[in-house]
Structure formats: C-alpha cells, structure tokens
Design a protein that fits this description.
The protein is α/β, with parallel strands linked by helices. 46% of the residues lie in helices and 13% in strands. The strands form two sheets. It has a six-stranded mixed beta sheet. A six-stranded mixed beta sheet has the order 6-7-8-9-10-11, covered by helices on one side. Strand 8, helix 15 and strand 9 form a beta-alpha-beta unit. Helix 2 packs antiparallel against helix 3 and helix 7 packs antiparallel against helix 9. The two termini are 34 Å apart.
Length: 524
C-alpha cells in the first residue's frame, strides 16, 4: 500500500490532520515556531486538494477540516481548563469540555472553510487562493458569531516580528492572516512543474519580504503627535487566584496595592493603574476606601482601578458591572468604563433560564465569584478625564482581542488605551503569553499606546507601534514607572476603516483566484 493511497483513507487522514493542526499551534506564543504553521497549513492544503480532486463529499471534506481544527485548538487553547482548577470541587466536571469541547466547537469553523472551498469550481493555484480567502473570511466569522472568539488567528503567528507586525496598521490582523495562508499554500508550488505557479509563489514571498522592509523603515522613522510627558505607574500585585476573592484576605490585598502604589518614584507620577478587579469593594458607596486610595496619589494625579460597580439600593432589576474606575486625589470617582464584551460562562451564564429549567436552578454556575450575572456596558467609548489628561479607551480583560472593536471611531480619538486584566486564572501556561501578544496588535492597528495591567502578569506598556516600553513578567510582584508614549500623527488605515479593509482583501484575493482560473482555461 503506497503512501498516497493511505492518505485517502478517512481515519489515517484524519489522524494526520489532527497532528498537523496541533503542530501548527506551535507558531503562537510562547513558542513562536512560524515554520510549524506554514508547514502544517501546506500539508493540510495538500490533503484537502487531494480530497476535492477525488470528488469527495462535502461532509468528508468538512470532517477533514474539523479534525485539523480540533488538533489546532486543543494544543493552542489547552490553558482554558486551568481556570476550572481554581475551584476544582465545583467545576472538575467541565474540564473535559474545556480541553476538547471548546476545540470541537471551534473546529466547526475550520471544517466550514474546507467545505466551502469545495464549492470553488476551479482547481490548482486558483483554488489555493480561494481557500486562503475563505479561511480568513471564516476567521472573521469566528471573531463575531456567538459573541466571537478571535483567538490565535493565523496572523498572530508573526507576533515575534515587530517589523511584520507593522502590516496590521494597514490591513489589520486578518490581512496578515491572509498573507500567512498564501505563503503556506505557495510552498507546494515551489517544487511543481508550473512556471506560472512558481512565479506567483515567489511573488508572494517577495511581498512578505517587502512588508518586512517597510515595517523596519516604519519603526526606524516613527511619526507621533507632540505630547506632554505623563509618567504612569503600573501595579502588579501577583495575588493568587485561589485567594483573590477570599473575604478574609480582601483587606490585606487592598493594603498590598496601597503599599506598592506609595513607593517613591524618580518620575513625577500623574497616574497609578491597578489591574482588573483589583478592589473587591463597591467604591461608589465606600467613601472610606476611596479616600484611602486618594492618599496614595500625588497632587493632581489619578488612580485607575478595576472594581465591581452596582446599581443603587432599591433599583430593580439589581445589576452589577465589571468596571474600570478613575479616582482623583480627593477620593472622587471622576470617570468609569463598564466592560461590554463579557465572557460566556465566566461572567454570565448564557441561556440561564433554559439551563436552570433543565438542570435545576443554581446547578450550573458561572465561574467567577457570585451568583448574579454581570451586565454588559454600552461598548467602546472615549472616556474623558479632568486636568488635561488625554482621553482613553477602556478595555477590560479579553475585550482587547477583538480587532476593530477597541476604539469608538465616532467619538474623539483617545490618546491611549488601558487594558486591565487578570490572567491569574490560567497560571503559568500559554494563555497569558498569547493574550499579551494579541494586545500588542491592537496598538499597531489603532496607532495608540496601550497600557496593559494584569494581576499576575504580563503587565506592559506598548507604544503606538507595538514596541514594549516596559514590562513586568508573569508571576512577578512589581511596579513599573514609565512615560506614556504618544499616538501616531495619522490614524492608521485599519484604525480608520476597520473591517472594510478585511472585506476588500478577501474579495481581492477571490478576484485573483478567478483570474488565475481564466488563464488555466485559456491554456487548455
């Protein structure tokens, strides 16, 4: 039995697809093995093309893609299960779902991209380009349907290269995904007999090289707005998640944050920033703790903190929000932002009434503390601040992973973005590293500095080109004092037009795929 014949057998083929998917995930943080993704995608493209050439059914082709996705997301997202070990007694039974159930659901998107490729009526390089466009289109769907989860998009495999990362200022991360797919597909045509196919493949790699050169020039010649220096302090307390919501520990946690905030600085601090849910008190109704926080501030400075917010007593329905609050040196809350993109099962229970009726009320709980679902905020907004502070766009936790949804383009352009998060749920795994790298892309796409403050790390300040200005590593307690970088002078192309750019690139590649098919038919 020769090797190609084995590849046409369903189960050996699906096993290979699963392995290729897992290998491809090694391209993402913290391993950054880009060739693994290029070779994995090239290999699965070879299998897909063989299946289409043999006129396999839509379902068989779908399952080929599903198995690739299962392997890809199992290796890339294994860390989600770590969150369930924080309260193992309550959530142990969900660990198999986190390890394999979530990848199985996300694999549906990968299977869909394979099945849709079968519809494309032309073969060869034309089909390869169509597959790349369809893949990225389905990536976009994955980032939007059912609240969206655009994690580990193919373009994030370039996080190791600040030069290549500059491309997202023009195309967004989806454009970089498209380039990655085209590079992977082109590998098989470098060794083929077709001169035209080899030339196109060479051109794609030449374009990638030119993008790197352009990115290097862009980094060497930054163009930013003039701005007044503003010194800020990031506070990373590194509180274990198992103790985070212990009522006997919350005052000790609060004092720890105060002590770190009060340490002397060589800079004239204008802002002190604490992580997501750093304070477990309802500060709007707790003047004592607000005034205690204010005492840590230099005159005229502001303190930014994650904290819960609730509706007033007697208001029905009673609501709580996962919020970012800004407190001045007099202990007043001068601004706030409410998280709008909530984590399903983490911050709210989807289909709560259905689940309660089926399993019994209260049987299925959200993972975070408390029994009440959080209420979503109104969405991205430019939050104005007093005393000539630049307005900011607030992002709580994984809100930073959504391209084109981190800034309200209809409002005044913010001067910076603040991302408060708590990745202590996931321990020392790939998750915090991936979250960290994904955040960098938003800074480049929007041309805005991004301040990321995490409970246990990784906390950092990125300039508007995605470069790291300062960093506190994972599982470290520490403070970081830096000057806030300036925004780019011009709003980047993607920051201005958003996913219209994504749609244009997808349609453009499909148009090229159609033109390639015309050439093939003329040769015949």
């Amino acid at each position: 039995m020769d090797f190609p014949h084995i590849l046409l057998k369903p189960w050996p083929q699906r096993g290979i697809a699963f392995l290729l998917g897992g290998i491809g995930a090694l391209a993402f943080a913290p391993t950054f093995v880009l060739p693994a993704l290029l070779l994995a995608l090239s290999g699965i493209w070879f299998l897909l093309e063989q299946e289409i050439e043999h006129d396999s059914s839509f379902f068989r082709i779908f399952w080929l893609g599903w198995w690739f996705g299962l392997g890809h997301f199992t290796v890339g997202l294994y860390w989600i299960a770590n969150a369930l070990t924080v309260d193992l007694e309550a959530f142990w039974w969900l660990i198999p779902f986190a390890l394999l159930g979530i990848p199985a659901i996300l694999g549906i998107f990968t299977g869909l991209s394979f099945a849709l490729t079968k519809i494309w009526p032309f073969g060869g390089l034309s089909r390869g380009f169509a597959f790349a466009a369809i893949w990225v289109g389905v990536e976009w769907l994955r980032g939007h349907l059912f609240t969206g989860f655009p994690w580990n998009l193919a373009g994030y495999a370039w996080a190791f290269s600040p030069e290549m990362m500059q491309a997202v200022s023009f195309s967004g991360v989806y454009g970089l995904s498209l380039l990655t797919l085209l590079m992977a597909i082109s590998l098989s045509y470098f060794v083929g007999k077709g001169v035209f196919e080899r030339n196109i493949s060479f051109t794609i790699y030449l374009i990638a090289t030119l993008i790197w050169v352009w990115g290097k020039v862009r980094l060497d010649h930054p163009d930013v707005l003039p701005s007044q220096p503003m010194a800020i302090r990031l506070v990373q307390p590194n509180i274990p998640q198992t103790l985070k919501w212990d009522p006997q520990q919350k005052e000790a946690h609060f004092q720890k944050l105060l002590e770190m905030s009060e340490k002397p600085s060589i800079y004239p601090l204008k802002a002190i920033i604490w992580p997501e849910s750093a304070v477990s008190y309802f500060l709007e109704y707790d003047a004592i703790h607000r005034f205690t926080m204010a005492k840590t501030l230099p005159q005229g400075a502001l303190l930014f903190t994650g904290a819960p917010r609730r509706s007033a007593n007697g208001v029905i329905p009673f609501q709580i929000w996962n919020s970012l609050l800004v407190i001045n040196d007099e202990g007043n809350i001068v601004a706030h932002y409410d998280k709008s993109h909530l984590v399903p099962f983490g911050e709210y229970l989807p289909f709560r009434s259905v689940l309660d009726s089926f399993f019994g009320k209260g049987t299925i709980k959200k993972i975070t503390a408390g029994t009440l679902d959080f209420t979503p905020g109104s969405g991205p907004t430019s939050v104005s601040l007093p005393n000539d502070f630049p307005p900011f766009s607030g992002l709580v936790c994984y809100e930073v992973i959504f391209p084109g949804a981190v800034v309200n383009s209809k409002q005044i352009r913010p001067g910076w973005m603040i991302n408060l998060t708590n990745d202590a749920w996931y321990g020392n795994s790939s998750g915090p590293y991936q979250h960290f790298e994904i955040a960098r892309f938003r800074a480049v796409e929007e041309g805005l500095p991004l301040v990321r403050v995490a409970n246990s790390g990784i906390s950092a300040v990125f300039d508007s080109y995605g470069r790291i200005i300062g960093i506190i590593g994972l599982d470290q307690k520490g403070i970081l004092d830096v000057f806030l970088p300036a925004p780019t002078r011009l709003i980047p192309f993607y920051g201005r037009w958003g996913d219209l750019i994504t749609l244009t690139f997808i349609l453009g590649i499909l148009a090229l795929a159609w033109l390639f098919s015309l050439r093939k038919r003329n040769d015949q």
